[in-house]
Amino acid sequence: MKNIVVIGAGKIGSTIARLLIHSGEYQVTVVDRSEEHLAQIETSAALRVAKVDIADASALTAILSGSFAVLSAAPFHLTIAIAEAAAKAGVHYLDLTEDVASTRRVKAIAQTANTAFIPQCGLAPGFISIVANDLASRFDSLDSVRLRVGALPQYPSNALNYNLTWSTDGVINEYIEPCEAIVEGKLVQVPAMEEREEFSLDGVTYEAFNTSGGLGTLCETLEGKVRTLNYRTIRYPGHAAIMKALLNDLGLRHRREVLKDILEHSLPSTLQDVVIIFVTVSGWRNGRLVQETYANKVYSAVVAGRPMSAIQITTASSICAVLDMLSHGHLPASGFVRQEDIGLDLFLKSQFGHYYEQAADTRKMAS
């Protein structure tokens, strides 16, 4: 059994730990600075907890030493400190960050490391990049790659049509930071919350708009190979207009802590959510312009004996699947590993990747 350290005892970190120990192949230490969060973790012979302040570099390095890998489920602003500690401790590093600047720093750290550094292992970036690259590989040449992802409440009941299902810091960051895209073959930055569109899927109308970080390293990978590449977050109609009013008209983009406090005290969390994944690639094959689409909905379900939200399932199972592939020698054991370097078939065949292919009868939460 390999020893794994999970940084962050929140919803996603605790789900990662539960999935790993449920497999019977890993021993896990969950690290957090909050005793309150750690007290909610159900410990066992294969799972222990440790209170460590991430800002204490020596303590963090010490807790990582001797482990196989560290998986970061901490807020994006702690990414660099954890990656630096992983390099010092000589352990593999995986994270869930959507932050572009942090990932660039992780890439730089990986250049001199002897272990694998695999950032952005969640849903988007993460699984979405694996799907997009798999579709793109089926074409002789590419025209457009369009990625759309959303984690939405199944039963919206407020004006924002939204419930908290993910890191509030992460949501705010992706709504504010500039977004990478390829437009007419050139890598550019486009503003977040703009270029809103509407589409229907299974009879339900959605809106989608630019958000930061969802493409991961795809822009670098596909620059010069595709005319159009973009990523947009899916929400129910009306969400973007209200968020733009909060961010721009009320100036809360410059007061993130105030916005976070408002959202966390006004929007209830829910386990009854759905994750929508919608990727469309068009290009030329055998001289003809053709299009292929991957469309999937993942619902909240009972996993590893616990009711879990769809965003918990998709995010945690994704990073666990990448870890499992690394553990079994299916990924490079050193250097920087991009999500698009990961094969979709191997991912889905892993003991964790199959959660993206839920059977219909598992989609209802236990009462």
Q: What can you see in these coordinates?
A:
There is one protein chain. The protein is of the alpha/beta class and 367 residues long. The protein is built from 12 helices and 17 strands. The strands form 3 sheets. Strands 7, 8, 9, 10, 11, 12, 13 and 14 form an 8-stranded mixed beta sheet that branches. Strands 3-2-1-4-5-6-17 form a 7-stranded parallel beta sheet, with helices on both faces. Strand 8 and strand 9 form a beta hairpin. Helix 1 crosses helix 11 and helix 3 crosses helix 4. It is globular.
Mean pLDDT: 92
Percentage of residues in strands: 25-35%
Helix content percent band = 25-40%
Instruction: Label the overall shape.
Output: globular
Note the gap between the termini.
Answer: 34 Å
Characterize the largest beta sheet: strand count, sense, and whether it forms a barrel.
8 strands, mixed
Which blocks of ≥5 consecutive residues have pLDDT under 50? 359-367
Radius of gyration: 20 Å
| Overall strand count | 17
SS-based class: alpha/beta
**Helix and strand sequence:** EHEHEHEHEHEHEHEEEEHEHHEEEEHEH
Number of helical elements: 12
Question: Could you name the key traits of this structure?
Answer:
single chain, about 375 residues, alpha/beta, eight-stranded mixed beta sheet, seven-stranded parallel beta sheet, 17 strands, about 30% helix, disordered C terminus
